[in-house]
Amino acid sequence: xxxxxxxxxxxxxxxxxxxxxxxxxxxxxxxxxxxxxxxxxxxxxxxxxxxxxxxxxxxxxxxxxxxxxxxxxxxxxxxxxxxxxxxxxxxxxxxxxxxxxxxxxxxxxxxxxxxxxxxxxxxxxxxxxxxxxxxxxxxxxxxxxxxxxxxxxxxxxxxxxxxxxxxxxxxxxxxxxxxxxxxxxxxxxxxxxxxxxxxxxxxxxxxxxxxxxxxxxxxxxxxxxxxxxxxxxxxxxxxxxxxxxxxxxxxxxxxxxxxxxxxxxxxxxxxxxxxxxxxxxxxxxxxxxxxxxxxxxxxxxxxxxxxxxxxxxxxxxxxx
Length: 320
What we know:
Blueprint lengths: L3 E3 L9 E7 L7 H12 L3 E6 L13 E4 L5 E4 L3 E8 L2 E9 L5 H14 L4 E10 L8 E6 L2 H7 L2 E2 L8 H11 L4 E9 L8 H15 L9 H16 L2 H15 L21 E3 L5 E3 L14 H15 L4
Helix pairs in contact: 1-5, 2-4, 5-6
């Protein structure tokens, strides 16, 4: 734990760990905002932080300049932090920060060492992926694990994904090798609204994670924001005839059950959010583009993503 700086030494009884990272695993900021809200709602106390010097590319995730109360400049470094909290369901450690860019094995060793120190009993990682799902329907959640007992206990799926992964996947593997029970929760968010933060997906992730903790999810003050999200995306869709038809098709698929357990079948094979080559309603492969905070090789500008969706719809014709 040579790169861990301790900020507190609370007495925790077999806490559960909830982790999320900004960046590749965090479409529409849904996962990071879930943990951020839990820290605030549960009045999390600073526990530790991981020194970013060894793990962060500061040219990509830049530090910020802030002014203190007496107008002095100070640098805020992009740091992965940990907080502790007590809930009706037991003690919790909350981990949040930017996805590291360097030395992932060394980074995971730091996190696992903290988990060992406090005898963490369950690790829940949160993520969000872009998918062909409509914003106007309930958020589809994907819950996976590699541990039989955890799968049965929380009604999860066994992950079948093979391909590129992010720090969430690496941590899941490392915790599993260390003998810790792990679960991974992913929220599917609409690809056509990838540039908008999704409080609706945040609420869904928080509720499911808190169910697994055995404690009520503090989602009350986010519900209004989730409702406003639906209205905002609907207004954006209403300005584009092609998108109206596209979303209507997705709604029909959702209502008919064609999108149930989206991404968990063997054909799609992106049950952990690591592959975003989507399927359209006819079963043809479609690449809708990849936004920042989701899987893929490079971030895509929101206008470029919209243009790509529109080109696809025009190419396919309007069979509906």
